[in-house]
Amino acid sequence: MTYNVAEIRNQFPILTQKVYKKPLIYLDNAATTQKPDVVIQSLETYYSKYNANIHRGVHFLSSHCTDATESARKTVQKFINAAHPHEIIFTRGTTEAINLVAKTFGQIELKKGDKVLVTRMEHHSNIVPWQMACEQYGAELCVVEIDKQGTIDLNSYEKALNENVKIAAFTHISNTLGTINDVKKMVEMAHSQDIPVLIDGAQAIQHTHVDVQDLDADFYVFSGHKVYAPTGIGVLYGKEKWLEKLPPWEGGGEMIDRVSFEKTTYNTLPFKFEAGTPNYIGAIALGVALDYIQNIGIDSIKAHEEELLRYATERISEINDLEIIGTAEHKSSVLSFIVKNIHPYDIGVLLDKTGIAVRTGNHCTQPLHDWYNISGTVRASFAMYNTKSEIDYFIEKLDFVLNMLQ
Ligand code: PLP
To answer: How far is the CA of 226 from the centre of ligand 1 (A)?
Structure first.
């Protein structure tokens, strides 16, 4: 089946919007993606027809929502090829999922002298929770460096893996550089020394096929809102053996088995990690979003986005005094750049007035920007619904804006 981008665009109501009377060109997809009709409709249907709190009701609505939530869990399980549905924990997003692991893993695994390994290109969400855990337990946060292109130096990574490292946490795809890391190899290298890994999949799940069993990831995390689902829902995948081993993190309803003032026993997986009323309607809509992607085909989406990135990279390279930040051989959907003597913010503000949404700043990767010795970049990021004609318009307006600012 051919990839019909016009048909896909028709399913995203926001894309027909005008901003400042100009057609919206949405190139801020790494920050969040837009939502297709089916996802928006699922929210409306559940709130208008079926809403009732899950897991504790005997009535029709509660059973319906409970079944739909558990079916969404199975959809996520299949989408990432997890071995069991109970290895899927619903969280608020990537950030919460990493905090969950850092806190609980820290509690049982980290002590003075231990190390946690991250890379230079991590999002703050995959730095700060580990830093906090290290501070609490007297461990040390160690960093694997990258080269100028934005590729992790696998030799340094291998050297850094030693018996003091208790976990390695790294991103699958960089939100600033677009680098696709060879995570399978990185997992293999860590496992050869019995070191577990957490992979931050926030920028990968929407662009590429993810198979957590094939990767042999111990933990894999992502956010719903970056994969065409609503905000406030995300996923922590954890291998059963790890999720069984880690202590619960938040206490409250749902995560308990039996409560008395003397002692509380905890629920089985996955509920042990889902205290309180979860965002079940968000979880259901996440399932709808993943089914939607599955219907189009993640490989077709990938091929379309690769072509967009190739084309945008080629076109933007025509512009004088512009430097692309992130030129790794394997890249996905992200094009960050700086222009000599012009502040990224000024470029972003003027592009906005032409209807183009890009992001400017450090994209929550300050240590990475420090390393490049820059304060920020302009980032255009692509999704399944973007087109080459949008890229042409973007390049035309970028040229115009730069002429104004130079
Ligand atoms: N990790 C990466 C690589 C990201 O790009 C992001 C968001 O931009 C996050 C983590 C944090 O995601 P969230 O804010 O949805 O928790």
So the answer is: 8
